[in-house]
Amino acid sequence: MNIFKYIKKAIVFALVVFSLSLALQSPSYAAALEGKWKLTSLNDSPVPEQFNITVAFDPNEGRITGNAKTGFAPIPYFGSYKSTDNTIELSEGIVKPLIYLGPEGEEYFSTLNSAESYDVKDQKLTITDYRDRKLSFVKAE
Q1: b/e map 8-27, b = 16+ CB within 10 Å
Q2: For residues 112 and 136, is the Cβ–Cβ distance under 8 A?
Q3: 47 near 41, Cβ under 8 Å?
Q4: How far is C-alpha 88 from the geometric centre of its chain's CA atoms?
Q5: What count of Cα atoms within 13 Å lies in the side-chain half-sphere of residue 118?
Q6: What letter would DSSP give residue 72?
Q7: DSSP designation for 71
Q8: Cα gap 111→99, rounded to integer Å
Q9: CB-based contacts of 110: which residues, under 8 Å, 6+ apart?
Q10: Minimal CA–CA distance to 41: which of 132, 141, 135, 139?
């Protein structure tokens, strides 16, 4: 019977259209994380003025880059990440600076490396790790 032939073609066509629509969508979570952020607090404690950390997320490359500064020149760090609508995982961990950045720096990198989730609201980003430690950021210029 020819009717099954047409049904099969219709199903294949519908699957192709559905797949293409998914492939061409840009996830909103990628856009939410994208860009450069400045650290404002570690576990709800304000960051000391001399402690300046930025982070940038590139969803197209799955890369995280940033600079840490504690009175000296900015020291770069980098790594890779994966994210979904509210989860984040640092694939290989952050390659952090070899220079000791004090207890704040150690806490920052420890929390970032164990990050599990994030939330973006009103140009503010909060990253939370598995121990419920939090990093808070504001969108940087």
Answers
A1: eeeeeeeeeeeeeeeeeeee
A2: no
A3: yes
A4: 6
A5: 27
A6: S
A7: S
A8: 18
A9: 133
A10: 135
In sequence order, the 6+-apart residues with CB closer than 8 A to the CB of 105 are: 51, 53, 68, 70, 97
User: For the chain, percent helix, then strand, then coil, each to nearest 5?
Assistant: 30, 40, 30
Distance CA 126, CA 59 (A): 17
Tens of pLDDT along the chain (141 residues) come to: 577 676 776 676 655 555 544 444 344 445 678 899 999 999 989 988 888 899 999 988 889 999 988 776 788 999 999 888 889 988 777 777 777 788 888 899 999 999 999 999 989 999 999 999 999 999 987
In 3D, which of 23, 2, 20, 109 has the Cα closest to residue 64? 109
CB-facing half-sphere around the CA of 131: CA atoms within 13 A: 9
